[in-house]
Specification:
Elements: E1 21-27, E2 32-37, E3 41-48, E4 51-59, E5 64-69, E6 75-80, E7 84-89, E8 94-99, E9 106-111, E10 117-122, E11 126-131, E12 136-141, E13 148-153, E14 182-186, E15 190-194, E16 203-206, E17 211-216, E18 222-229, E19 235-242
Antiparallel strand pairs: 1-2, 2-3, 3-4, 5-6, 6-7, 7-8, 9-10, 10-11, 11-12, 13-14, 14-15, 15-16, 17-18, 18-19
């Protein structure tokens, strides 16, 4: 058969952070990498002429709890430990920012599949829904006083359609319109599957995991959940749930 061109392996050491790196997020459409450290410093890296260098620096001197690229890659949602939420462009322009009420402790954030809203989850078990201008649309409680640890949509991570970078990123996302499902993961091991934040009949999964990580398959039909349970001895299990 025909040979397949395999890209050569190359290792790069990206040096810049002076404290523990807590998260890294790849932007596929723009081929950029965001990295956050324990002090709250965010670097956005770009490859230029065969070398990786820092293109942007963001430092609020406050730990970051969540960083999420929009599905078209043009925007970033950044949530901080003190309740500060910021949305900026891939080029570093700030679109909007807001400080959420002190009674809400942010645990994570996520873009909706069409990039028209952001969901900000709290340790109180709720979701704060905000529009692309930073206005609060709604607040819902999913599990009272049970921290939400992750919000995972079963859509493609990135929309790789042709982009016109001169258009408005807030209104020009031609995302696949198929109905998407959100897996809302809780610290007690429960997972709720929702069509939207106001879904009146979510599906509840009780994994029994104390610590878990959930990821959808590329097709969006399977949700894999890995976690830890306490038995006579510690074991790790992996469960797969098929979306009907």
């Amino acid at each position: 058969g025909q040979g397949i061109d395999v890209p050569s392996r190359t290792n790069y050491n990206l040096r810049g952070h002076r404290s523990e790196v807590t998260m890294v997020k790849w932007n596929e459409p723009y081929q950029k990498l965001a990295s956050c450290d324990s002090t709250g410093i965010i670097f956005v890296w770009i490859k230029y002429e065969g070398r990786w260098s820092i293109e942007l620096i963001n430092d609020r001197n406050t730990p970051v709890t969540s960083f999420s690229w929009s599905h078209d890659g043009r925007m970033a949602l950044i949530c901080y430990q003190d309740g500060f939420v910021l949305v900026g462009s891939v080029a570093g322009q700030r679109y909007w920012s807001t400080m959420l009420p002190s009674d809400s402790t942010i645990s994570c954030g996520s873009w909706t599949p069409d990039d028209q809203q952001v969901y900000v989850a709290t340790t109180q078990g709720g979701i704060i829904v905000m529009d692309v201008h930073g206005n609060i649309v709604n607040k819902v409680s999913l599990l009272a006083d049970i921290p939400i640890t992750d919000l995972v949509w079963n859509c493609e991570k990135f929309n790789m359609e042709e982009r016109d970078d001169t258009t408005n990123p807030f209104v020009d996302n031609r995302f696949n319109s198929r109905l998407c499902v959100l897996a809302s993961c809780f610290k007690n091991g429960d997972i709720k599957l929702l069509r939207s934040y106001d879904d009146v009949s979510p599906v509840l999964l009780r994994t029994g995991f104390q610590t878990m990580f959930a990821e959808w398959s590329n097709s969006g039909e399977l949700l894999a959940v890995a976690g830890r349970v306490s038995l006579t001895h510690t074991e790790t299990e992996v469960n797969y749930h098929h979306l009907n």
